[in-house]
Amino acid sequence: MKIILVPGFWLGAWSWDRIAPALEAAGHDVVALTLPGLESVDADRSGIGLADHVAAIVAAVDEAEEPVVLVGHSGGGAAVHGAVDQRADKVARAIYVDSGPLPHGAAINAGLPDNGNGEVPLPPWELFREDGGRDLNDFTEAQLDDFRARAIPLPVGVARDPQVLADEARFDVPITLISTTFTRDEIDQYVAAGEDYFSELPKIKDVTIIELPTGHWPQFTKPEQLAEVLRDAV
């Protein structure tokens, strides 16, 4: 099976370095993407929006001869859902890692602070610790330092542009939601409340939810466990 790994905000293909080899060892053809504007600190991020990230994933799907599995982490999950909407017939399963299938018209995170130059830098860690947040659970200080040293500013449009969906065939694509910072009970509550990140779940015909308790970046904090869950999901 061809598996396309899509990173979240501030990350590139390198963020899957501890995941991809385990999937390849299981016999899969693995491609890890670096999305537009996240190639380097010096990359041109002007004018890049969510549609550009979706288009990059669609292009990778179109290169495959057979249906693929898409794996999207965090904000990358919203772009994955946009690609599923455009290529439902070519996606065998979509997997969302502490993410969800963002609905039409919603932005991924419009509240993230930008630097005034069309970029959203990685915020201070304190922002992720507010209100008892679980995002940084299981991180070591060395891992946090490495993450910050390698983080690339995000094009602001990716965080703020509305999702654009048009084809209800997306609801026919099976999904797996690997939740690391929410429990299954909490997800059920968010679904009942109509929260954006989970409002598409009741419409999708085949949904599997797996809890993997850790921080928001399990590819760093629990890579072996995440790789195992991904192998099972595929």
From TrEMBL:
An example Gene Ontology molecular-function term: hydrolase activity
InterPro entries (UniProt xref): AB_hydrolase_1 (IPR000073), AB_hydrolase_fold (IPR029058), Sec-Metab_Biosynth_Hydrolase (IPR052897)
Protein's UniProt keywords contain RNA-binding: no
Domain AB hydrolase-1: 3-229
Keywords, comma-separated and alphabetical: Hydrolase
Protein name, per record: Alpha/beta hydrolase
